[in-house]
Amino acid sequence: MTQAPNQETNILGKFTSVVGLLGAALFFAGWIYRWSYFYFFQLELNTLDLPAQSFLIVPLQIFLGNSWAIFKTAIAFFVTAIAIQVTLWLIKIISDAVVSASQLLLNRIISATQHKRSWTAKRLKSLAEFGVGQLRSVDFLRSLVNEIVIVSWVLIVIFWLARWQGIADARRDAGQNSTLPVVALITPEDKFAIGRKLDDIFADPSLQGYRIIGDRGLFEDLRGREDNDISNPKQPRVWRLLLERGGWIYLFQALPPNVKPNEIPSMLAIQTSDKGHIIIRSPEVSKTSSP
Predict the structure, then answer these.
(1) Which of 65, 143, 151, 264 has CB 3.0 to 4.6 Å from 61, enough for a Cys bridge?
(2) Based on the structure, what is the number of domains in the chain?
(3) Where are the transmembrane segments (predicted)?
(4) 61-99: per-residue pLDDT in tens?
């Protein structure tokens, strides 16, 4: 009768520990996924001020997003289980060999100094006897090392799964099969130095009063190409909305088809205006032709 509460407490304690470790692993996976995703778009995750609870939802996409993700996750953790067993087996073999060699050496030192009364011999004997006693704690150290190995392998697998999925999703969203919305951003004329005039789309806005630091070519490459243009299927120009966060709007031109694997889009960050702005979102490009 007296053991039931202890057993229930033990089970509850283990359950709490598992939930805590699972939550930490999910948060770690979510953080790595978003870090790799936004890093692809040249954005630092720490500057975006994303809610912490959102990192716990993202791992569902990493591990259970589709049938391929489930299969990849199952294979990864199966291989991880094998890697853990092999690593623990190697550690056991090495540690047993080290312990045996150390035990033999210490026993020889004790035997050699057993009947000697010099100060050096006494110190060596004392040190050897202390070493023999310390070897008894190897089992505890081995248990600690085993836990470190298991946690390390699990973190490594979660890191690479989250990183690969983050980069893969970023490449998809940067290209023609993006899940991000097509965007039309309308702002006051004096807000920034780029953009087409609504009443005269061929006229460039005045640059008077603006200054530049850095690569002027980046600005020139963008100027005159601020609107969507899908007339050339091989080089379509489509603007998409990546994120709205912290008073900033992040836009980019989707990459054209057959782009090089190492090519990434340029990001345009626009600070929201006190005078107001309009953002129109759409899952697809408008079929209305530009004037």
Answers:
(1) 65
(2) 2
(3) 12-33, 53-71, 76-95, 144-162
(4) 788 877 888 888 899 889 999 998 898 888 778 766 766
